Inverse folding.
């Protein structure tokens, strides 16, 4: 058994595939409890005392606003002190130090490494490397290239979980994923999590050059999850329970190829609300561009700003699970009974 396998159900958070239904439900319940506890000052002070002896580094070598700030504030909610590196040119990497040596250095100072990298698989390699050192620490993948964004997928599951809690949950729902699916790590990670829900169906709406990757389609086939592809956004809206919009990921362009795509066909506009079921929801990982019109924002089915807030609370739950303080938050007969 590897070091990671012996640590329990949650240590490194590297990829969506590592989560099963029991762990997802547990994290969703923990997130809801944390939100409730944090509503009053006594509860917020209590949460802040739980991990005041821990330190984290946010090593973000790819631009980020929401993920960075939500993780930073999630740490602070639990009393974790944070440091950050957001530009390698301000670190010894500028002098030629390898990223691996830089991370090995961080592990000497902190108790968890939260990292975002433009390199797919880098978080996995980092975790494997640290596991072989005399001071292994948990690694949280906060986005790796075009490959994975597991904590975004977890907050997306929590958003779906809360949105459909009075309609049988996520089981049996039809979810449309729209936009740059080939390079959208958020929809890739969320697709992997669909293995945990019964009767889910996926619809991929994308330009031909930006269709969902064959690796994801093959995974869905293996799991027996039905899916279909189309370029007709309006045509599929009457049959969906959730629409997950994504932007054009042109930061990965090599020769400006995205400029050749007519992306207007894959934009959600106010007129689409007229054919979207009243019980459906609209999601987006943000930031957005023209693919999601601001005129949609005031509709009660627009959940993306709530989705964004959910991100911070889910990340608090992830940290709580990693450091083994779930019982301190959930146990009504323990120390948390006063909140």
């Amino acid at each position: 058994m590897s070091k990671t396998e012996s640590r329990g159900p949650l240590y490194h958070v590297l990829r969506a595939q590592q989560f099963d239904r029991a762990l997802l439900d547990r994290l969703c319940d923990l997130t809801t409890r944390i939100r409730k506890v944090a509503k009053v000052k006594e509860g917020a002070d209590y949460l802040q005392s739980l991990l005041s002896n821990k330190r984290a580094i946010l090593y973000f070598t790819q631009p980020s606003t929401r993920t960075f700030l939500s993780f930073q504030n999630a740490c602070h909610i639990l009393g974790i002190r944070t440091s950050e590196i957001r530009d390698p040119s301000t670190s010894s990497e500028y002098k030629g130090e390898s990223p691996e040596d830089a991370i090995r250095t961080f592990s000497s100072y902190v108790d968890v490494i939260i990292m975002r990298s433009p390199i797919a698989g880098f978080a996995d390699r980092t975790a494997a490397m640290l596991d072989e050192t005399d001071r292994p620490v948990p690694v949280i993948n906060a986005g790796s290239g075009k490959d994975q964004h597991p904590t975004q997928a977890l907050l997306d599951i929590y958003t779906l979980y809360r949105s459909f809690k009075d309609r049988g949950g996520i089981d049996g729902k039809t979810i449309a994923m729209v936009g740059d699916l080939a390079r959208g790590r958020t929809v890739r990670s969320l697709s992997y999590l669909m293995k945990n829900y019964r009767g889910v169906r996926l619809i991929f709406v994308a330009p031909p050059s930006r269709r969902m990757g064959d690796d994801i389609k093959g995974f869905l086939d293996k799991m027996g999850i039905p899916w279909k592809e189309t370029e007709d956004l309006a045509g599929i809206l009457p049959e969906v329970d959730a629409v997950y919009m994504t932007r054009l990921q042109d930061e990965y362009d090599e020769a400006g190829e995205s400029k050749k795509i007519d992306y207007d066909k894959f934009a959600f506009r106010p007129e689409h609300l007229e054919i979207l079921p009243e019980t459906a929801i609209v999601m987006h990982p943000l930031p957005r561009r023209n693919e999601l019109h601001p005129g949609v924002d005031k509709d009660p089915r627009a959940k993306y700003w709530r989705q964004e807030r959910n991100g911070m609370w889910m990340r608090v739950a992830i940290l709580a699970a990693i450091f083994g303080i779930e019982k301190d938050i959930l146990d009504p007969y323990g120390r948390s009974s006063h909140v």
